[in-house]
Amino acid sequence: MLTAAAVKMARRGVRAPLFEADALRLPVADASLDLITAAFGFRNLANYGAGLEEMRRVLRPGGMAAILEFSRPSNAAFAALYEFYSRRILP
User: Fold this and answer.
1) To the nearest whole percent, how much of the chain has pLDDT over 70?
2) 36 and 65 in contact (C-beta within 8 Å)?
3) 8-state DSSP, 74
4) What mean pLDDT do residues 75-87 have?
5) Cβ–Cβ contacts within 10 Å for residue 51, how many?
6) C-alpha to C-alpha distance for 18 and 26, rounded to whole angstroms
7) Quick one: three-class SS letters along 3-46?
8) Is the CB of residue 48 less than 8 Å from the CB of residue 42?
9) CA atoms within 13 A on the CB side of 42
10) What's the rounded Cα separation, in Å, for the pair 57 and 65?
11) Which tens digits make up the pLDDT trace of 2-32?
């Protein structure tokens, strides 16, 4: 993913550091990021609270964290609608 991102960024003339790290101990200075995104990765953290605290630590005041995760709804009717949407419309 990092290699693909580097290629896209180079094509668009975007310069920003890319790195792989433990999400609970980011090698980034306090209050140094404007945006953090996590897509289908937050669920893999060993400690959700510690992950959120780490995001807060590295975000600048007014910065934004965007977390994209999905789970199965417990309500049977909504679960059926969700399943239909996920398999038929979303793709």
Assistant:
1) 100
2) yes
3) S
4) 90
5) 20
6) 12
7) HHHHHHHHHHCCCCCCCCCCCCCCCCCCCCEEEEEEECCHHHCC
8) yes
9) 19
10) 11
11) 999 999 999 999 998 898 999 999 999 999 9
Task: Report which of 6, 70, 12 is spatially closest to residue 39, judged by C-alpha positions.
Answer: 70
Q: For residue 26, give the amino acid letter.
A: L
Tokens of 43: 């669920």
Q: Rounded to an integer, what distance in angstroms lies between the CA atom of residue 37 and that of residue 64? A: 8
Helix, coil or strand: residue 63 = strand
Nearest to 19 by CA among 35, 1, 32, 31: 1
CA 90 to chain centre: 19
What is the residue whose two structure tokens read 């609970």?
A: 24
User: How would you class 45 by CB atoms within 10 Å of its CB: exposed for 0-12, middle for 13-18, buried for 19 or more?
Assistant: middle
**Is 43 in contact with 35 (CB distance < 8 Å)?**
no
